[in-house]
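Retry 2 of 3 after timeout on previous attempt. Resubmitting structure tokens to design endpoint.
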């Protein structure tokens, strides 16, 4: 849990600096920063699509422990 919190704190401090550098590189235009955020969003969405469901795996591995729900 501490490692995840550390990574979130690092991302929270690095992201504004990165966006500031991108805005500076595009001569004050926010277009580069928006495309940077869009590209990160696409990467996160693709990573989300590759996740496996733990519930489905548990149901196939242990069918006798799943209660019948109606």
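Retry 2 succeeded. Sequence:
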């Amino acid at each position: 849990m501490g490692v995840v919190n550390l990574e979130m704190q690092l991302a929270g401090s690095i992201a504004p600096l990165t966006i500031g550098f991108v805005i500076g590189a595009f001569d004050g235009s926010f277009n580069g920063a928006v495309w940077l955020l869009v590209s990160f969003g696409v990467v996160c969405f693709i990573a989300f699509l590759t996740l496996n469901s733990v519930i489905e795996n548990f149901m196939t591995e242990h069918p006798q422990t799943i209660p019948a729900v109606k």
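Attempt log closed. The chain has three helices and no strands.
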